[in-house]
Design goal:
Blueprint (H helix, E strand, L loop, with lengths): L7 E10 L3 H9 L1 H4 L8 E2 L5 E3 L6 E8 L5 E12 L3 E6 L6 E9 L5 E11 L5 H21 L1
C-alpha cells in the first residue's frame, strides 16, 4: 500500500431503545434533541453548531467540541434517505471516498425499537478501538436522554 492509498472498512451496530421509532428518529434529526447526545462522552455539540435540512439531499452538519481542550470536530453530511421512523442515511463527502451511514429503525411492537446502524467506506483512522468506543458512548448518551422523554 502506498502513502496515498487508504484502507476502508465497514461496521454494523445494533441497539435496542425503550422508545418508539418515530421518537428516536426525531432525536437523531432535530437539533433540539441531537445536542443532548451527539458525540462521545467528553464532547459537546452546541445547538448553534447543528444544521439539519430534514429531506433527501438536505444538509446534515454538526461541530462537536472537546469539553477539555475546546478542539472542534466538524461533520459535513448530506442526507441520502429520510423516512421518519423507518430509515435515515447520509454521506460524509469530506471523509476520503465518502463514508455512508445508514440507520434502520425496527419497531419491536412492545414500545421498544431496534436500530441497526451500518457504516461503509470507513477510513482506517475511524476504525480504531477509541473511535468505536466513542461511537458506542454516543448511543449510551442517547439511551440516557430518551429516558427523560419517555
Amino acid at each position: 500500500m502506498t502513502d496515498t492509498e487508504q484502507t476502508t472498512g465497514e461496521l454494523t451496530i445494533t441497539r435496542r431503545f425503550a422508545a418508539p421509532p418515530e421518537l428516536i428518529f426525531d432525536c437523531m434529526t432535530t437539533p433540539e434533541h441531537l445536542t443532548h447526545f451527539w458525540g462521545p462522552t467528553g464532547v459537546s455539540t452546541p445547538i448553534g453548531k447543528i444544521t439539519i435540512d430534514r429531506r433527501p439531499g438536505g444538509r446534515f452538519e454538526t461541530t462537536m467540541i472537546n469539553d477539555a481542550t475546546g478542539e472542534e470536530y466538524p461533520m459535513l453530511g448530506v442526507f441520502v434517505e429520510f423516512v421518519r421512523g423507518k430509515k435515515l442515511s447520509w454521506t460524509e463527502r469530506d471523509v476520503e471516498g465518502g463514508m455512508l451511514t445508514s440507520v434502520t429503525f425496527v419497531d419491536l411492537g412492545d414500545g421498544t425499537t431496534e436500530t441497526i446502524t451500518h457504516q461503509t467506506n470507513i477510513p482506517a483512522m475511524f476504525l480504531t478501538a477509541e473511535v468505536q468506543e466513542g461511537l458506542q458512548s454516543s448511543f449510551v448518551r442517547l439511551d440516557e436522554y430518551l429516558v427523560t422523554l419517555v
